[in-house]
Amino acid sequence: MLSNDRMLDITLSLLKQESDRDRQKKIGASDFSDPCAYHLAKKLLGIPDAPFKYWLGAKIGTATHSFLEDAITKSDLPEMKSAVVEQKIFLGTLDGYGEIHSKPDLVLVEDRHLVDWKTSTRDKTRKYQRVVFGESQDAGVIYNLQKYYTQAQIYAWGLNKSGTPIDTCSLVFINRDGTTDADVWSYTFEYEPEHAEMAWVRLETIWSNLGINPDPEQFNREEECFKCKVTDPA
Q: How many Cβ atoms sit within 10 Å of the Cβ of residue 171?
């Protein structure tokens, strides 16, 4: 008979298997949308982050994405007729680094709409809502929303450049601890090319500075960056 400890080891080993996202070496939209220049510089240099204690939420997020991808193929919703799921798009080229690509979660081509799924928790989503509705100025929440908003804008920018027009974007938050329809919330906004272009210029500047001095310590660590704040890695 397998012991409890052995069964736990087996389950953790399965859950911790590397996904395609884990194996991704080059940066994508989710990296250069990060306001933390220090962590972006590390990613550009190929410096791996230390093992991270808080890993399970990301795995649940990957599983949720996989479920939705399958559900889209089986859906008879009219919007899904033009759905494009996880298709690689070209964002640009950094001299000396190479081409940068990303895979948007969902593109509704006929509706000219970009969707980015975000797994969350009830508490976090309520905080995001308060910021969006102008009821809060929580710096940590604003940091995360800025990252997500920029990521979606970068996807839309890449799609528009490649000939797939996008007018609007949605961040759809799905609460991991949710129980009802109310635990899924969509935040929709218009595409702003200038926002994505600013993110690209910032990326080029950081990469250029690394060419002169390949040390990520030259860049500031953002006060609200969760990875910078964590003091108890795995």
A: 22
